[in-house]
Amino acid sequence: MRTAPLVSATLARWYPDVPFGIRLFDANPERLDLADLLLRRLLDDWNDEIPVASSQSATDALDGATEVIVTMHEDCARRMTSRGWSPNLEYFESANTLDLYGGGDRNRPTPVEQLSEQTRRLLENPGLESGSREDAIRESMAQILKIIPEEARLLSLTRGVVLPVERPYAHFDWPPPVAEMGLQLVPHQILRWVRGDEKIEPLAQAADASPVMAWLKDSEAG
């Protein structure tokens, strides 16, 4: 959720001289569906000839890849490594999709008695998980790195984690971090873009100036 909007916009605004396709991977089907919806919405406006495929299989997503952008979230890492997940991550797991993304007055807090069980646990005890975030991400990345093609260029946007790999790769501390409670609002924003309730031009401006766009253009030169 931290990176999906801006990375998707950057990919949708990339116009290399050769045809290319985009594959999305996430072990969380709900997050994957949201990213897929947004990317297809952006491509409809900017680059509708690009084929898109989404998969919960990293092997399928990485097969034959030439550029790989890794932005590993704790939730995906824990699902890949069977480490379980904290109440923070269960929020997206069990909530009804329509209830979660359907809207409502976000400026008026929900009465405590109307909060879902998942949200109450999030507010009461937000830190229970098996092992640290960093350990889970490094373990999941060790799996991913085994199947990334040797010739592929690799970019990491994963914050605070050095990838367990000897091969060269680029790393950007971009986009800026988002607080956990702020991340819960991102799906609402994504759906506003998807439904056309909010203009996507600011995404275009941010994408055109992004370090990921510069990295993609470097691949054309190389």
Percentage of residues in strands: 5-15%
Question: Helical element count?
Answer: 12
Structural class: mainly alpha
- The 3D shape can be described as globular
| Record field, number of beta strands | 5
Give, in spatial order, the strands making up the sheet with the most strands: 3-4-5
Output mean pLDDT.
83
Order of helices and strands: HEHEHEHHHHHEEHHHH
From the alpha carbons, calculate the radius of gyration and give it in angstroms. Answer: 18 Å
Features of the shown structure:
5 strands, 3-stranded parallel β-sheet, 222 residues, two-stranded parallel ribbon, globular, 12 helices, mainly alpha
Q: What's the short version?
A:
By secondary structure, the protein is mainly alpha-helical. The chain has helices spanning 4-12, 29-46, 58-62, 74-81, 87-94, 97-101, 117-124, 133-147, 180-183, 186-195, 201-208, 211-221, and strands spanning 22-25, 52-55, 67-70, 153-156, 170-171.
